[in-house]
Amino acid sequence: MRLYRILALSVLLATSLNANATVDPSKVAKAVSGAIESKLSNRGFTPSDPRFAGTISRSTGVIRAATSLSTIPLITAGAVTAPAWMTASMVLATGAAIGYAASVGEESLTNWLLKEDGTVDVEGNPLPIDSSDGMTVGSSYWSASDYVNSMQGGDGFAVARQAYYNYMARGGNTNPQAPNCQQNNDTQIQCANIVAVFKPSGSLNMCGQGFYFANEQCKPYSYPAPSSVPAQSDLTAQQAVDSLPTSDLSRNLSPAYVAAVANIMWSRAAMEPGYDGVPYSNSKQITSNDVKAWMDANPNYTPTVADFTSPAPSSSSTAYTLPGTATSSAPQAINPNATSTPLNLGPDPAIDAPTLQSTPTAEAILSPALDLMPDLKNLVLPETTAECPKPILYVFDTEIEFSAHCILLEDYHLKEIIQGLMMFFWALAAAIVVLTA
User: Fold this and answer.
1) Any idea of the CA torsion for 29, 31, 32, 34, to the nearest 10 degrees?
2) 118 backbone φψ class: left, alpha, beta (φ>0; ψ -120 to 50)
3) Whether the Cβ atoms of residue 48 and residue 41 lie closer than 8 Å to each other
4) What is the mean pLDDT of the chain?
5) Does residue 189 contact residue 153 with C-beta atoms inside 8 Å?
6) Which residues contact 350 (CB under 8 A, 6 or more apart)?
7) Smallest Cα–Cα separation from 261: which of 53, 101, 124, 76?
8) What confidence tens digit (pLDDT) does each residue in 230-273 have?
9) Greater confidence, 2 or 95?
10) Most buried residue among 35, 153, 337, 415 by CB atoms closer than 10 A?
11) Helices (H) and strands (E) in the chain, counts
12) Residue 94: CB partners within 8 Å, gap ≥ 6?
């Protein structure tokens, strides 16, 4: 029991230290800048390219313009009332929404939907069914009764909720929801009329994580997991921030949120007149995997949920400025002969500038081919009269005339068909000769 109290005090102390950790909204700017730069590098652009720095600079202008709007929602924390990265993102998300793709923070309890009308929908992630490592013979355990069966397990809240679920299900409730269970002290957890009691040792059974012991066997927990945060709709930005569990504030900001904000800023910047950065591509958007890779490589600059939701004046020189790594936003003029010795080419020969001939017309270009062999233009073939030959053969004083082919050619118009086929084949042969020359 003493060890249990020491662990509980350690958790409370760690939570308190994290909650009081220094908040730095500029880390969000660093993460967004890093995400954009990583995508630019993946697309083949280098920091020396003037468009690289132009993308970062123009994106900074977008977020600064958003924080300067009089309509932007403000967040109050202590004595400071100012915009936050969260509210600036809501302003930029016109025609879109950010959220529900992931939790606000990594492994946090809360999902947010930041809507373009300036409100926030909140949804909680389900609590884990069994947060213990299970139960072994001789170990500590929790015990409760559902008024019919006794049950034991490694997680007190899970045992209490399962006992309450069994009790309500027997009463005809086909989908009983567990009430808000509470821990009365170190040894008791209560769910309505069900109480789970902690036993420091002496377990007679062994069940793995996710199972409890009842009726001489290990059974899986079957109660519906309660939400960690109650679902709420159309909250103001301040209400959404106030509803965040303290444990969420110290968690790393979700890469999905950083990616969404970076995509919005870049796409908005690319639509502005005079944009001199890299064009934004809908088919090559910044993804949460891109941001996650950057966060893993830069843990000291990874923002927390508190950094994203804490107020920072729009006049801040760092909170809303993407730092970037490019050193130049414009090409530098280079004179390769600046350090060379001038070459003396002698006196000016006074040669006039060359003149270009007039462009020939289409008729002038085609005339050599059209005027080729002019005598053929007046060629007239003489008219001839001919008839289908009908050979005659004499056999044994008998005259045999072969005229069937003439009937086929003339009466059945085969002559015209053959003429057309021959004309096509000769034209094809001529074209082959010309093209292969």
Assistant:
1) 120
2) left
3) no
4) 81
5) no
6) none
7) 101
8) 778 888 889 988 888 887 888 899 898 899 889 989 998 999 99
9) 95
10) 153
11) 13, 15
12) 116
Residue where the block lists tokens 């034991």: 152
If one counts every other C-beta atom within 10 angstroms of the C-beta of residue 353, the result is: 4
> Where is average pLDDT lowest: 71-80, 260-269, 270-279, 374-383?
374-383
- Percent of the chain residues topping a pLDDT of 90: 28
Measured CA to CA, the distance from residue 140 to residue 11 in angstroms comes to 20
Arithmetic mean of pLDDT, 80-108: 73
Contact 123/243 with Cβ under 8 angstroms? no
Q: Which helix (H) or strand (E) holds 111?
A: strand 110-114
Task: State the pLDDT at residue 198.
Answer: 95
Residue located via tokens 């930029």: 92
- Taken as a whole, the chain contains a residue count of 437
| pLDDT digits 0-9 by tens, 189-198 | 998 889 999 9
Most confident of the ranges 138-152, 230-244, 340-354, 397-411: 138-152
Phi/psi at 43 (nearest 5 deg)?
-85, 0
Q: Which two tokens stand for residue 398?
A: 């008998």
Question: What per-residue string of b and e applies to 326-352 under the rule 16 or more CB within 10 Å gives b?
Answer: beebeeeeeeeeeeeeeeeeeeeeeee
What is the CB-side half-sphere exposure of residue 403 using CA atoms within 13 A? 7
Torsion angle in degrees (nearest 10) through CA of 241, 243, 247, 252 = -30
Taking CA 176 as the corner, what is the angle to CA 171 and CA 179, rounded to the nearest 5 degrees?
115
Is the sign of the CA dihedral 272, 276, 281, 284 positive or negative?
negative
* Conformational region of residue 76, where left means phi above 0, alpha means psi within -120 to 50, and beta covers everything else: beta
- pTM of the predicted model over 0.90: no
Helix runs in 200-317, H state only: 237-242, 246-249, 255-270, 288-297, 305-309
Q: Six-digit token pair at 210?
A: 């996710």
Cβ(26)–Cβ(319) under 8 Å?
Answer: yes
Q: Which two tokens stand for residue 372?
A: 């080729």
